[in-house]
Automatic annotation (TrEMBL):
Record Pfam families: DEAD, Helicase_C, Helicase_dom4_arc
Positions of the Helicase ATP-binding domain: 33-194
Catalyzed chemical reaction(s): Couples ATP hydrolysis with the unwinding of duplex DNA by translocating in the 3'-5' direction; ATP + H2O = ADP + phosphate + H(+)
GO MF annotation terms: 3'-5' DNA helicase activity; ATP binding; ATP hydrolysis activity; DNA binding
EC top class named in words: isomerase
Enzyme Commission (EC) number: 5.6.2.4
Function: DNA-dependent ATPase and 3'-5' DNA helicase that may be involved in repair of stalled replication forks.
Residues reported in the UniProt entry to bind ATP: 28
Protein name: ATP-dependent DNA helicase Hel308
Keywords: ATP-binding, DNA damage, DNA repair, DNA-binding, Helicase, Hydrolase, Isomerase, Nucleotide-binding
GO biological process: DNA repair
Subunit description: Monomer.
Domain Helicase C-terminal: 231-427
Length: 639
């Protein structure tokens, strides 16, 4: 099937052909046959690099009205926006801003790119452009099974189908165990394929040999290791060197940020692909110890990538790798989540990661996502993915990851915090005003599809009682309504638990002496909420943070003896202290050094604090209270 045979304008056909896209890949042709270019609903469960983006574009370009492209991450939203913006004659908008804005101007675009949280927020705030949508494409729909993000995605899709009954839905997924369940839920045709434009072989390294799943072997020369050398690291270095020396690029995945940086430093010793100019460019993005380490590694053709990097550095690493200026990226598994960075070889050194309680195996789907980055279309004749093991683990790694299917996608909607959030949203948005009404709305969720025998009204009843106790819902007989506080909590897109904590803080502030209400007070309130990212509290810091909390106890809304659990509150105090010092002029480098926090962590917490302080100010208005410190600190966070 040829592009020029599709119902596209001459300008679009010319655009695709000039970019080397003339013939459709088999999964793309199957999607056309399933009706993706004629308004049909389609779930495409196909490997990375098999043409999912073109399937999405085809649906959106042939839709009878505006289209929405939903992504899981803001970084991916920017990447897709830039891709779609190159389409001739197509107006593209992006929505990643404030959660409490309806952004009516988005209705002027042919395509809008947004995260599922931003779409959910737009629905809550009555955005009129939502009702005019003709097509919605969901990228990475398998994230329905992710805690936190999954329930928001399924409620968003359920609500969109209710508001726009004739909506075309196109869902793009990695290969998972139960794509037919997702397709059945969405009333869509399933296009399932293992076809790839570049063949992929996956194997396990042990004893200087990689055994692949296609019955081939690869001998790897690993120099003798000394007593202080890590054998898995040295094997990884040898596998990376081999790929680069034969003209390929390599992604090396490890379990943690520290390991990513350490492996990059080790590979930098090999001077694999000198790139001094790139190091200079990275230096210009700003100076932190982490940034300088990155630029020094980049001079040798090696980069690292993790959430602790500043966003500008992460984007620069991704772009440099795509432009083939970097030979290697050492990364945590988050890099595999959608961002387009294909390589000839992927090496997965670590297959376990620390989850807070113990070391646990990485899910099969996550490993398959990493492996799927191997093989650069139009650049590589093949792709290779290698899991680093040893003689004792080789067979287990084969069984667990190489020959195993990815896990099934199961709804996480019954999580208590998710239920509280979405029950409040449904009532506050006017979609339902009774237990049965809420249950009816939730009957369209993926959870209800998977659990048809569950009594949704009974499931919701306990949550309604909790929300009533939180003063976020009113219950009068069988009628439910959001209180002023509940409506504002939902509109500000904070969780009910966060809303209740902020309200409690505001009321405590009203009882405090004026001289004790400071910037620290405002920050302690918003940092001690589940919507603020946790900040690691090391053993050596506990005593220092305890003393800091004691010396500023009069400024905090939680008494130290009432903090429960105390450790979580002390962690919140640390985050508040970092943000307070930021508002007083400390730069990122000082904070990183002082508090063992990544520069990207500082950025993300500043951003979160701005959002939560704005929500706190709005909740003050709902309480007919005024705490100017919320506004003042928010203004200082991003002068």
């Amino acid at each position: 099937m040829r592009v020029r045979d599709l119902p596209l304008s001459a300008a679009l056909v010319s655009h695709y052909e000039s970019n080397g896209i003339e013939e459709l890949y088999p999964p793309q042709a199957a999607a056309v046959e399933a009706g993706v270019a004629a308004g049909g609903r389609v779930v495409a469960a196909i490997p990375t690099a098999s043409g999912k983006t073109f399937i999405a574009e085809l649906a959106m370009l042939t839709a009878d009205g505006p289209a929405l492209y939903i992504v899981p991450l803001r970084a991916l939203a920017r990447e897709k926006y830039e891709t779609f913006d190159q389409l001739p004659g197509v107006s593209v908008g992006i929505s990643t801003g404030d959660f409490d804005a309806a952004e009516e101007e988005l209705g002027d675009h042919d395509i809008v790119v947004a995260t599922s949280e931003k779409v959910d927020s737009a629905i809550r705030n009555g955005a009129p452009w939502v009702d005019r949508l003709a097509c919605v494409v969901v990228d990475e729909v398998h994230l329905l099974g992710a805690p936190g993000r999954g329930p928001t995605l399924e409620v968003t899709l359920s609500t969109l189908q209710r508001r726009v009954p004739d909506l075309q839905l196109v869902a793009l997924s990695a290969t998972v165990d139960n794509p037919e369940a997702i397709a059945d839920w969405l009333d869509a045709e399933l296009v399932e394929s293992t076809w790839r434009p570049v063949s992929l072989r996956t194997g396990v390294y042990a004893d200087e040999t990689v055994e692949f799943d296609d019955d081939t072997d690869l001998d790897v020369v690993v120099p003798p290791t000394g007593p202080n050398d890590d054998e898995a690291t040295e094997a990884t270095v040898a596998l990376v060197e081999d790929a680069v020396e034969t003209g390929g690029q390599c992604l090396a995945f490890v379990r943690s940020r520290r390991e990513a940086e350490a492996l990059a430093d080790r590979l930098a010793d090999e001077d694999l692909s000198p790139a001094p100019a790139l190091g200079d460019e990275l230096d210009e993005l700003g100076g932190t110890a982490t940034g300088r380490q990155l630029s020094e590694c980049a001079r040798t053709g090696v980069g690292f990538h993790h959430a602790g990097l500043r966003s500008a550095h992460r984007v620069a690493v991704e772009n440099a790798f795509r432009d083939r200026r970097l030979a290697v990226i050492c990364a945590t598994p988050t890099l595999a989540a959608g961002v387009n960075v294909p390589a000839r070889r992927v090496v997965i050194r670590d297959q376990k990661r620390y989850t807070g309680d113990a070391m646990e195996w990485i899910p099969v789907l996550d490993v398959h996502q990493m492996c799927g980055r191997a093989g650069r279309p139009h650049l590589d004749p093949f792709g290779e993915a290698v899991l680093v093991g040893d003689a004792d683990t080789k067979a287990e790694l084969f069984d667990r990851y190489v020959t195993a299917d990815a896990e099934a996608v199961d709804s996480q909607f019954a999580d208590p915090e998710a239920l509280r959030t979405h029950v409040l949203s449904v009532v506050a948005s006017g979609f339902a005003d009774s237990l049965d009404g809420v249950a009816d709305v939730f009957s369209a969720t993926y959870y209800a599809h998977q659990h048809p025998d569950v009594d949704l009204a009974a499931l919701v009843a306990d949550v309604v009682s909790e929300l009533e106790t939180m003063e976020l819902l009113d219950v009068t007989g069988e009628t439910l309504s959001a209180t002023t506080l509940g409506a504002q909590t939902s509109r500000q897109y904070v969780s009910p638990t966060t809303g209740a904590r902020i309200v409690s803080g505001i009321r405590t502030i009203a009882e405090m002496a004026d001289e004790h209400v400071t910037a620290r007070t405002a920050l302690e309130v918003v940092c001690d909420t589940p919507d603020m990212h946790d900040t690691y509290l090391g053993n050596r810091e506990r005593a220092l943070m305890y003393q800091y909390a004691r010396s500023h106890a009069a400024e905090f809304t939680t008494a130290m003896h009432d903090a429960d659990p105390f450790e979580e509150w002390l962690t919140a105090v640390k985050t508040a202290r970092i943000l307070h010092e930021w508002t007083e002029g400390s730069d990122i480098e000082e904070l990183v050094e002082r508090y063992r926090i990544g520069p990207g962590d500082v950025e993300s917490r500043v951003e979160r604090a701005e959002w939560l302080l704005g929500a706190a100010d709005a909740l003050c208005a709902a309480l007919d209270a005024d705490v100017p410190e919320f506004r003042e600190v928010r203004a200082l966070l991003s002068p």
